[in-house]
Each structure stands twice: as C-alpha cells, then as structure tokens.
Design brief:
The protein is α/β, with parallel strands linked by helices. The protein has 2 domains: 149 residues, Rossmann fold, CATH 3.40.50; 88 residues, Orthogonal Bundle (ProC C-terminal domain-like fold). Helix content is 51%, strand content 14%. The structure holds NADP nicotinamide-adenine-dinucleotide phosphate. NADP nicotinamide-adenine-dinucleotide phosphate (NAP) binds next to helix 1.
Length: 254
C-alpha cells in the first residue's frame, strides 16, 4: 500500500508518519488531515512524500489505506459525513470504539481494521495488535515494527487494556524519585538514579528467553531488600487492587 492517509495528526499520527518515512529510501505517499496545522505542516516540510490535504474527505480520496487517529471523545462528529468507498481500507487506532460502532458512524462497506500502534512506531519498534486480520494492514504495521493480529475483538480489548498501564508505570517511577528527594537527595540525582535503574530493567526485558518471573528472581536475594519490598508493598491486596482496576478498564473498553 503506497498511499496512506491519516485523519488526526496528533501524537500517534506523527509517530506513524515518522516510522513510515524517516530515513526510508522509498517511503509511501502520506496524506494528512489539515487539523493540527502546525504538526502537519512540519511533517510535510520534513518528508517530501508527505502532503497536507484540504480536508478529511480529501485525505480519503487520495488514499488506499485511511488511518483514523482522532481522539475517542468526539470521534463520531469528526468522522460523520465522510464518504469512504469499498475499495479503501480503513484502520482505526481510536481506543475503545468497536468495529460495529465505527461501521455505523462511517456507513461504509470498506474493510475496517482496528489497531493499537505504540509510540515506538516512530522507531519502527511497535508491536501493533490488529483485528480483524488483514494482510495489507499487517504489512503496513510490519513496516513499523511487527503486526500482532488477534482473531477476536474481545482479545483485542485485553491488549488495549494493557496499553492503559503505561503512565501508571511512569508515575510509579516519579513517586520513587519524589520519595528520595523528600529524604534529602537532590532531585536531579534521584531522577538520574531511578532512570538508570529502570533503563536496566528495559534492557533485561529484551531477553525473551527469560520469563518475567525469572527476571524478577534474577534481581532478588532471598530475604533481601527487593523481596522485602515486593512482599510488603506489592502484597495480595495491592495486586488485587490492580487486577480490579484492569477488569474495570476492560469492561469500559469493551
Ligand atoms: N498516543 C498513543 O500512544 C496512542 C496509541 C494507540 C492509539 N491511540 C489512539 O489514537 C488516537 C489519537 O491519540 P493521540 O494521543 O495521537 O491524540 P492527540 O495527540 O490528541 O491527537 C489527536 C489529533 O486529532 C486531531 N483532530 C481532532 N478532531 C479532528 C477532526 N475532526 N479531523 C481531523 N483531526 C482532528 C486533533 O487536532 P486538535 O489538537 O486541533 O484538536 C489532534 O491533532 C486516540 O483515539 C487514541 O486512543 C493513541
């Protein structure tokens, strides 16, 4: 697919454009919606194969694949009225909007595929969950890392729920840093140290031969500090609270 349109050029739309075009010898033609004019203009200046369209319909008219990347709230107002022929392929990255709902909003017979690209699409390192399976869409997300098609929309929602855990992780790290600063450690030192600790975790996660429990075990001395904190803080109640929050998010996303 060499003509790709993007409606909604925000954080994830920009990451997709960069992943498709940055340093790529023969990038696809990319057609962007005009809203968020500054970002769209900047991308079209940076990459010669990127153009900003007059309006959202113009994006659809130019593209073989149309990626919908507007925010969930207000998405139906943003998309209603678009005319999408059945020869197009529509990829929605809008969280929590089902295929059925989308088909009703768009009123098209075109294939509709949901996807969860990650910001790492920018570096072509996104494992992108897709549903339903569609070879052209999988080929598109393989370019941005790797496509992970799932057979069932309920399974798709489980992955969608997992993506909702990211910022809680950053807040966990920020809480550690703030705690150290309250103990009198200069904030910059606490920040640098916590980042360094968890960059090590990131690297260790790259080793797919070790399970997550094995990796935890690698860092845990029996009766040591890590075991102590894990069992006194990440205890049954805390673990159950997390599972409850995940269940509630899954229900919401379904
Ligand atoms: N960020 C992620 O990591 C991520 C990952 C996977 C999926 N998603 C999904 O991707 C979607 C976008 O997320 P985001 O983080 O990229 O949001 P964002 O940064 O807020 O971007 C949304 C963009 O859509 C534009 N927009 C709003 N109404 C529009 C319209 N009628 N026509 C064309 N463009 C319109 C907005 O312009 P204005 O700023 O002018 O309103 C903004 O540029 C969401 O549905 C989200 O669930 C995000």
């Amino acid at each position: 697919m060499e003509r790709i349109g993007i409606i909604g050029v925000g954080e994830i739309g920009r990451a997709i454009v960069a992943g498709l075009c940055d340093g790529v010898e023969e990038p696809p033609e990319v057609y962007l919606s005009p809203r968020g004019a500054h970002a769209a203009a900047e991308l079209s200046q940076r990459y010669p194969s990127v153009q900003v369209c007059a309006d959202n319909q113009d994006v659809v008219n130019h593209s073989e694949v149309v990626i919908l990347a507007v925010r969930p709230v207000g998405h139906s107002e943003a998309l209603a009225g678009l005319r999408i022929g059945s020869d197009r392929i529509v990829v929605s990255v809008i969280a929590g909007v089902s295929i059925g709902e989308l088909r009703q909003t768009l009123g098209t017979d075109a294939p509709l595929v949901r996807a969860i690209p990650l910001p790492a699409a920018r570096e072509r390192r996104s494992v992108t969950v897709t549903h339903p399976s569609h070879p052209a869409v999988e080929a598109l997300f393989d370019r941005l890392g790797e496509a992970l098609p799932v057979a069932d929309e309920a399974d798709f929602s489980v992955f969608s729920t997992l993506t909702g855990t990211l910022t809680a992780h950053y807040w966990y790290l920020a809480t550690l840093t703030d705690w150290a600063a309250r103990q009198g450690i200069p904030s910059e030192d606490a920040d640098r140290y916590v980042r360094s600790l968890f960059q090590g975790v990131g690297r260790a996660l790259g080793d797919g031969t070790r399970s997550l429990h094995q990796l935890a075990g690698d860092h845990e001395t029996p009766n040591g500090s890590n075991e102590r904190l894990r069992t006194t803080w990440f205890d049954t109640a805390n673990s159950e609270a997390l599972v409850k929050a995940l269940d509630a998010l899954l229900t919401h996303l379904k």
